[in-house]
Structures are given as structure tokens and as C-alpha cells.
Design brief:
- This protein has 303 residues and is an alpha/beta fold.
- It has eleven helices and six strands.
- It has a six-stranded mixed beta sheet with strand order 1-3-2-4-6-5, with helices on both faces.
- A hairpin with a 2-residue loop joins strand 5 (247-250) and strand 6 (253-258).
- Helix 3 (92-105) runs antiparallel to helix 7.
- The longest helix has 18 residues, at 198-215.
- The radius of gyration is 21 Å and the shape is globular.
- Bound molecules: uracil (URA).
- Uracil is lined by residues 65, 134-138, 141, 147-148, 150, 152-153, 174.
Length: 303
């Protein structure tokens, strides 16, 4: 048991050195760890008594995504410059299908996707007036091959519902088409996520621009700091608060910058929800959606 705990501690130190700050831990694993620490404590003094057990995290407290704070050296092949490509002539469905085939067969995207996982392109209505732009696929997204299907995605779907729309009414994409690689654990499983590097972004951005060209939405919504940096340029702001809630521009489209839904998963206060909601009210108004009095008042209790 001591060897297992030492191995866990060594792995946590290694991840910390790589910049990983948080890791998802299932309730079951936590219970096993607590049981192990408790057993060891009873058997002898080698392990100090376990601190009072923290309450098991509720599902909504589990970060949807965990990030290294800086790009991580994964040993993956370097990212080349993007190759020029052109969309075919034709209607939106034809052009989108050609883009999807191109991106999912792109050798660079494929080379960076783990075996059995998928390259991810945006989804939604090709006639959408609103296009949401997130960061990169996570664990659930690379399995299902669709953006925003994990916990953050479920919250995004609720936010879209609060706007009086359905997920299928909008278009949802990412600035990056594969799950940014992190070192694998001893079982060969990727644990945690990190933001895309500038090189990865530079490679994938033409594919987002092509989606904007095909769908031709009225406006874009950048979800979170990384998406906003990707669209506005690295280094254009230090804190998201400098740009969030303000209209910017990308690819000739009005761009609203707001928080990533995973921020709300970590900050469940009405104050946080109201901030993101005020940005979405602006989006609704800009897109000519009807805003009811009830919608105007959502999350006004800033507790
Ligand atoms: N977060 C994102 O930014 N994109 C996804 O597709 C999922 C989670």
C-alpha cells in the first residue's frame, strides 16, 4: 500500500512540474484513497492521521476541464504551417461536407489524435445566426466527435435554451480540432486537458474561418479566454475582464466575448451566472431575438 501511495505522490509531483494544477478525481477513487489512508493509519505511525475527510465533491464542483497553465512538451510531432485549401462551390451542405471530409482526413490532425479518438469539427445549423466558438475538444468530445458534449457542453446547451433557442438552432465550433495532447498516465490514458499552443491554433484557425464562411452567421460568441485569445490574437489582453461583454470583430463578424461555461461550473454564484447572462442578452438583442422581461431578470439575485 505504501508503494502505491508513493507512486501516486510521485505522479502528482510530475504532473505539477508540468504545470497541471487540478485533476478530476471520481468519488469512487476518493473513497478508495481515504480507505487506504485510514487502513495505513491504523496499522502504524508511518503515515500521519488522515485529515478530516473533505466532503466528496458534488458533480457540479468537478472541473469540466483541467489545464496545464503553459504548453506542455508531449513528444508529439511538431505542428507544420497550415496548407492552403479551398472550399468547393455549391450549397452550404455540400461545402460543409467537403470541409468535414478535409478536416477529418487532414494528416496533421489525425497524427495528433490518439488511437480510437476523433478529430472534431463544429456542429449545428448551417443557417445559424449565432456561432459559439469554444477552445478545444476534451475527453468526451474526442470520443463522440462533437464539440461541447461533456459537462461544459451540457451547460452551454442550457444557456442556449435560456436564450429561447435549441442547440440545433445555433452552430458550435472550437478554435482547435483535436484534444490537445498531454502526457499519458501509466495505463496509457490522457488525464486532464490543456489550452492549445499558438502553433496548434495557427494550424486549426483556417478551419474555423472556413466554417464561418460556410455558415455565414450574423455574429460570433467566443467562450472563454483561450477562444478569445485565439480569435483576437495572443497577448491582446491579460485578463478576460478586459474584453468580455464588449463587441469585437473576427472574420468580418461582430464577436461577443464571454466566459467559458466551465467557469460557471466552478463558480455557481448568481453573480457569475448574471455576468455571462448579460453578455448573452447583448447577443440576443444583436441577433434580433425577442427578450422577455423574465429573461431580462435571470440571475438578478446576485447571491
Ligand atoms: N470546451 C470547449 O471549449 N470545447 C469543447 O468542445 C468542449 C469543452
Amino acid at each position: 500500500m505504501r508503494a502505491s501511495l508513493t507512486a501516486i505522490a510521485a505522479e502528482l509531483k510530475r504532473l505539477k512540474a508540468l504545470g497541471v494544477r487540478t485533476l478530476p478525481v471520481s468519488d469512487a477513487s476518493l473513497q478508495q484513497l481515504r480507505a487506504a489512508v485510514g487502513r495505513r493509519t491504523q496499522a502504524g505511525p508511518a503515515v500521519p492521521p488522515a485529515p478530516a475527510a473533505a466532503p466528496a465533491p458534488k458533480a457540479y464542483e468537478t472541473p469540466a476541464r483541467t489545464y496545464a497553465t503553459k504548453p506542455v512538451e508531449t513528444g508529439a510531432a511538431p505542428i507544420p504551417e497550415p496548407q492552403p485549401f479551398t472550399l468547393p462551390e455549391g450549397d452550404k451542405a455540400t461545402r460543409w461536407a467537403a470541409l468535414k471530409a478535409h478536416v477529418t482526413n487532414d494528416p496533421v490532425c489525425r497524427a495528433h489524435v490518439r488511437p480510437g479518438k476523433q478529430v472534431v469539427l463544429g456542429v449545428g445549423s448551417l443557417d445559424a445566426r449565432i456561432m459559439f466558438v469554444g477552445e478545444a475538444p476534451g475527453a468526451e468530445e474526442e470520443v463522440q466527435g462533437e464539440p461541447f458534449v461533456g459537462p461544459a457542453g451540457q451547460l452551454l446547451t442550457k444557456m442556449i435554451g435560456a436564450m429561447g433557442l435549441q442547440r440545433a438552432d445555433v452552430y458550435i465550433g472550437n478554435i482547435m480540432n483535436w484534444r490537445p495532447e498531454m502526457p499519458l498516465d501509466a495505463r496509457g490514458v490522457q488525464f486532464g486537458n490543456r489550452p492549445p499552443t499558438e502553433q496548434e491554433l495557427h494550424y486549426c484557425l483556417p478551419y474555423l474561418k472556413a466554417q464561418i464562411e460556410v455558415v455565414n452567421p450574423e455574429l460570433l460568441v467566443a467562450l472563454g479566454s483561450t477562444a478569445a485569445q485565439g480569435l483576437l490574437g495572443f497577448g491582446t489582453f491579460k485578463a478576460l475582464g478586459e474584453v468580455r461583454g464588449r463587441w469585437k470583430e473576427f472574420a468580418g463578424k461582430p464577436l461577443m466575448v464571454t466566459y467559458h461555461p466551465s467557469y460557471i461550473l466552478r463558480n455557481q454564484s448568481n453573480r457569475s451566472k448574471r455576468m455571462i447572462w448579460e453578455d448573452l442578452l447583448q447577443v440576443m438583442e444583436h441577433a434580433g431575438l425577442t427578450v422577455s422581461e423574465r429573461q431580462r431578470g435571470f440571475f438578478l439575485d446576485r447571491a
